[in-house]
Amino acid sequence: MNNSDKPILSHLNDFLDWIDVEKGLSSKTQENYGRFLKRFLDWLKESRLENIKPHELTSDHVWQYRVFLSRQLSPKTKASLKKTTQNYYLIALRALLNYFTERDIVSLPSEKIKLAKDKSEKQVRFLTLEQLEKLFSAIDTDKPSGLRDRAILESFFSTGMRIAELVSLDREQIKFPAETQELELGIIGKGNRSRTVYFSKRALSWLRKYLATRDDKEKALFIHYRSKKNASSRLTPRAIEKIMKKYAIASGIPLSSTPHVLRHTFATDLLNEGVDLRMIQEFLGHKSITATQIYAHVTSKKLREIHQKFHGGRRLKT
């Protein structure tokens, strides 16, 4: 029996081997994928679809599975599964379909699986410092690729750069100052506008460690390690989005976390520390203050707390 004739249930172990060998995902991530996919495989059995083959899976099956997930209750809270939790299961199923594609096994395209939308999507999404710690801790920095990934995420949080700005950086642009100083770097951003970004001592520390592993002559600051012959090794925006998604899954932070969420986190952190919106506009490279004002509601609670503490006429005598 060739792979195309095997039921989907029979592919789980091969899939887990694939994300280990081909994708190099951590054992924790493999464990999570296995757990999320087990829910799908159990659903197949409950739906009497245990013998269904990859090419027999349809969009209607996926829809039925999504309905099933939406009606599941959390074992802890007894409430319906959150949209973000449902998406963990759907992303694992997407990964399985991507595995079929790479192994030339005919199946439903992964693009057919749409993630559940959260009502909060229109709001500015950012990470708390605790979530940031979880994200950074999920990276295995014993590996060169892990050092690279930590340097990437630290650079996002330190500079607030857009993903296109980060991937365009060249190694020669990083001139390490004294260890007690930050790095000011001039870049050309969106709309061909120039601005200065700042790498913290912490971000520079990880960049040093990452670049110490590089013995190549590649121009790009951030490269991938599996480039084809005569192809560019520079990481693409899509590749960095996948890196971020991998660690979001591994750390258990919201799946909506993207490189742009780190940009939001950068801005929100500064706002919470009292930095003026006009200054945030400069940091982010926004042409208009209108674009920066999306962060205003994020700090409304903080502003209310400050007002209650320092204002309200408490110093008036009459």
From TrEMBL:
GO molecular function, one term: DNA binding
Keyword Cell cycle: yes
Keyword rRNA-binding part of the UniProt annotation: no
Alphabetized UniProt keyword annotations: Cell cycle, Cell division, Chromosome partition, Cytoplasm, DNA integration, DNA recombination, DNA-binding
Chain ranges of the Core-binding (CB) domain: 6-101
Tyr recombinase domain ranges (all copies): 122-308
Pfam families referenced in this protein's UniProt entry, alphabetically: Phage_int_SAM_1, Phage_integrase
CC terms in the record's Gene Ontology section: cytoplasm
Compartments (UniProt record): Cytoplasm
An example Gene Ontology biological process: chromosome segregation
InterPro entries, A to Z: CB, DNA_brk_join_enz, Integrase-like_cat_sf, Integrase_catalytic, Integrase_recombinase_N, Integrase_SAM-like_N, Tyrosine_recombinase_XerCD
Name of the protein in its database record: Tyrosine recombinase XerC
Lineage: Bacteria, Candidatus Wildermuthiibacteriota
